[in-house]
Structure of ABC-type quaternary amine transporter:
Amino acid sequence: MHLETIHLYKSFAVRQGQLSVLEDINLHVEAGEFVCVVGASGSGKSTLLRLVAGLDTPTSGLITVDGLRVIGPGNDRGMVFQRYTLYPWMTVAENVAFGLKLQKLPKSERQQRVAYYLEVVGLTNFARALPRELSGGMQQRVAIARSLACQPKILLMDEPFGALDVQTKETMQEFLLDLWRRTGTTILMITHDVEEAIFLSQRIYVLTARPGSVQREVFINLPAERTYTIKRQALFQDYRDEIMDLLREKSALDPVID
Ligand SMILES: Nc1ncnc2c1ncn2[C@@H]1O[C@H](COP(=O)(O)OP(=O)(O)OP(=O)(O)O)[C@@H](O)[C@H]1O
């Protein structure tokens, strides 16, 4: 698996003309990596992920997965959004099976995969529950299982824990890190939460304020086995200060005018 964006630009037509949102984004994600993109609000993070997902098209530039140009959504890329996107009238198991049905997988294989991925996210006992019977964190675990069940080459996550309370968020971060280690899934995640990015990833792309461009690539040299206590370590704090300073510096220089 090799994902790459090459000289990626995106602008939107607005009343006043063209709004440039992303400028010359060059990034890559390799098999098994956990990479985060952080940036201030409005720096174009969601736009970037939507382009990679194929939900929108770049103004110019190129996105490739294993050398093939992205021209739309595909099973090679799974997406997890901030808001719960489960179908409320379907059980947990039916939600996880949804994409597999679309792929026309035989029933026996569907059942096997649903059972396996519910186990992976620790929700086997909730297979028959409806989404409204689950907490926010559990619903996000179902959404993750639903994406993983399609066995994408890469999981794209758009602020997946942004709507959760602080405690649930911490639990989910530990859960996701553990899942990543156990399954070897490749993950590209966007977040505005700098600590979350450092805690989870191996590499971070820091965007400038709008129009977003890559300001710096930060390699996170923390042990792969991380628990929450790592946040108290000096190295963690150094990364946090470095990235926070970058974000502050740029937003002071380039105020976002709406
Ligand atoms: N379809 C669209 N038409 C016009 N402008 C858009 C469109 N989509 C996004 N934008 C603008 O692009 C800019 C970047 O939006 P985007 O949602 O990608 O930022 P973000 O970094 O994800 O922000 P946040 O962290 O607040 O979610 C914003 O100014 C937004 O108003």
The domain at 1-76+193-258 is CATH 3.40.50.300 (Rossmann fold). The CA atoms of residues 84 and 140 lie 6 Å apart. Helices lie at 45-53, 92-102, 107-120, 136-149, 166-183, 194-200, 234-253. The first strand starts at residue 2 and ends at 14.
